[in-house]
Specification:
alpha/beta, 2-enoyl-CoA Hydratase, Chain A, domain 1, 2 domains, 12 helices, binds zinc ion
């Protein structure tokens, strides 16, 4: 032991003498590499992202799984979060459903580029959501009643309506006609898809014309408006239902409030463009909370089918 210390002492003295100051104290200093140094800062925090969701209305933080089990409705204030199209269909159909036209994709007819190419936006959305555009058309049973449902997906480029959404909804209408089933469309959209220009605007007329034929065929169409339903979707199929029903607190309108204020040069009233305001002013037939939506739709279908 003493011999070892002696050797180390000697080596240290020699090192000092050689001016190799970098090595000094190397034996006495512990190679201290704390967790803080070893772990990059972004990994130091416990990973909770995605596990908890904060309510936009009351700021209550809810465990994501609990929120999902509560149909994405805040357990404290009943705020209705946006719901994905797949979860929406799971909620409305009794078990399995058959999807139609799932493979339809946009051809980017204008080769549009804004801050990034439209083609890249589509690719990104397809990868993220594992669907090809912003709507799912499906048929199945709702509380034992056969029905065709189109559910829009806000996550896919803001639920915007381009050629694919317009065509899929139109085909949904035609499917309802061919099979003599009622139609439900759950809207959740920022409006027409700007990247498809006039082609997206043409969808308004196409879907509306198809819905007129559904009406002639005496088949009911129920429109469910969820947060948000705006622009070209409000200006076409979302407001054309035999029944237009909305979820509580949903933003529903054509242009945004700022544009309207600037155009008419008037201050808009409180709650303007929310479901409750629209119901009061006769634009909607009912506001139905998400938990009651399925049973409400079932009894409405009974009423309309007879
Ligand atoms: Zn809340």
């Amino acid at each position: 032991m003493t011999a070892l210390l002696e050797r180390r002492w000697l080596a240290w003295v020699q090192a000092m003498a050689a001016g190799r100051k970098d090595r000094k104290m190397a034996w006495f200093k512990r190679e201290k590499k704390s967790i803080d140094q070893a772990t990059p800062p972004e990994e130091r925090r416990v990973r909770t992202e995605g596990l908890w969701t904060k309510c936009e209305n009351c700021r209550t933080i809810t465990f994501r799984k609990d929120l999902e089990a509560n149909l994405f409705v805040c357990p404290k204030c009943q705020f209705h979060f946006k719901m994905g199209s797949k979860q929406r269909l799971e909620m409305l159909f009794d078990g399995r459903w058959t999807e139609h036209d799932a493979g339809m994709t946009s051809t980017d007819p204008l080769k549009f580029v804004d801050t990034k190419p439209y083609a890249a936006r589509i690719k990104e959305a397809r990868k993220k959501l594992r669907m090809n555009d912003a709507v799912i058309t499906a048929e199945g049973q709702l509380n034992g009643r056969p029905v065709v449902i189109c559910a829009m997906e806000f996550g896919f480029i803001g639920g915007s309506m381009g050629a694919v959404v317009g065509e899929k909804v139109t085909r949904g209408v035609e499917l309802a006609m061919d099979t003599r089933q009622p139609l439900i469309v759950v809207s959740c959209s920022g409006g027409a898809r700007m990247m498809e220009g006039t082609i997206s605007l043409m969808q308004l007329a196409k879907v509306s014309a198809a819905l007129a034929r559904l009406d002639e065929a005496k088949l009911p169409y129920i429109s469910v408006l969820t947060d948000p339903t705006t622009g070209g979707v409000t200006a076409s199929f979302a407001m054309l239902g035999d029944l237009n029903i909305a979820e509580p607190g949903a933003l529903i309108g054509f242009a945004g409030p700022r544009v309207i204020e600037q155009t008419i040069r008037q201050k808009l009233p409180e709650g303007f463009q929310r479901s409750e305001f629209l119901l009061e002013h006769g634009f909607l037939d009912a506001i139905v909370s998400r938990k009651e939506l399925k049973s409400f739709l079932a009894s409405s279908l009974d009423l309309l089918m007879n």
